[in-house]
Specification:
Elements: H1 3-20, H2 25-44, H3 51-66, H4 68-71, E1 81-84, E2 87-90, H5 91-103, H6 108-123, H7 127-143, H8 147-166, H9 178-185, H10 187-205, H11 212-231, H12 244-257
Helix pairs in contact: 1-2, 1-10, 1-12, 2-12, 3-5, 3-6, 5-6, 5-7, 5-11, 5-12, 6-7, 6-8, 7-8, 7-11, 9-10, 10-11
Organism: Qipengyuania pacifica
Keywords: Membrane, Transmembrane, Transmembrane helix
Transmembrane segments: 27-45, 57-78, 84-103, 115-141, 147-165, 185-206, 212-231, 238-257
């Protein structure tokens, strides 16, 4: 399975939802632009990222998770966003997919990166990214069982339960509670979105690029974000309005495609 369909299919389902649900046109433009940029990166980016460059990328990605704690951008005391000029990007959706892929490549550094990421999102708090870390760790454990990875998954799950209580924000139209809104437009649209979420997990896990650990970690991260969206007021990854998830999974898929 090529990396591009794994991103394009759910993103196009999301654009269809935004169009049918009557979202503002600039919402469609933002998501479509992010999709085109991500596809361009995957299609025309440098064929291979050298191994010595991948650890610095992992360090920077984890570091970006801590930026919201100091950026001054917060809602009700919750800080999850990276201010990029006039645009706010959700830090977890933007960098956790790449962290999942890169953490699967190294034993010690990968586990340290997941623990550091969990600390960052626990302080924000961000239950969705916490569940994504849980899913990534579970994916790594399934692909290559190790007691430390299992402990990280368990710790991330417990932390996520705490964050679900402390970190819920009001639902934003066309971003969260999308299944409920889509069902009001068409029951088939809601079913299509649910199928797209489940299908994306399968597409990511079944990629031909990368190692089993990378694929399962990435699929697990998406499953974690999706579960958060289904049980709480949290952005629907690749479906709802927002460039963060599209750019984040585009970068992660590029990294998988450029592995060697």
């Amino acid at each position: 399975m090529s990396t591009i369909p794994a991103l394009a299919i759910p993103s196009l389902v999301g654009l269809t939802y935004l169009l049918l649900a009557g979202a503002p046109r600039n919402y469609l433009l933002v998501n479509a632009t992010a999709l085109l940029l991500s596809i361009a990166l995957m299609a025309f980016g440098k064929a291979r990222v050298k191994r010595q460059h991948r650890l610095p990328i992992l360090v920077v990605a984890v570091g970006l998770l801590f930026v919201p704690l100091f950026s001054g951008v917060a809602v009700n005391g919750i800080a999850r966003w990276l201010p990029i000029g006039p645009v706010l990007l959700h830090a977890g959706l933007l960098v956790l997919p790449a962290i999942s892929v890169l953490a699967a490549e190294g034993k010690g550094p990968g586990k340290i990166a997941l623990i550091a990421a969990l600390v960052a999102v626990f302080l924000q708090p961000d239950a969705g990214t916490g569940l994504a870390i849980t899913g990534a760790a579970i994916g790594l454990y399934v692909a290559r069982p190790h007691w430390a990875t299992g402990c990280i998954a368990f710790a991330a799950f417990l932390a996520s339960l705490s964050m679900l209580v402390r970190g819920e924000l009001p639902a934003q139209p066309y971003v969260e509670r999308i299944l409920v809104d889509a069902a009001q437009v068409s029951l088939w649209l809601a079913v299509g979105i649910l199928v797209a979420l489940l299908g994306t997990v399968a597409l990511l896990a079944g990629l031909r690029s990368g190692t089993v650990s990378q694929r399962f970690a990435l699929a697990g991260s998406f499953a974690g974000f999706s579960i958060a969206a289904l049980v709480s007021n949290y952005p629907f990854p690749l479906i709802g309005y927002g460039a963060s998830a599209i750019l984040g999974y585009g970068l992660a898929l590029f990294l998988i495609g450029s592995s060697r």
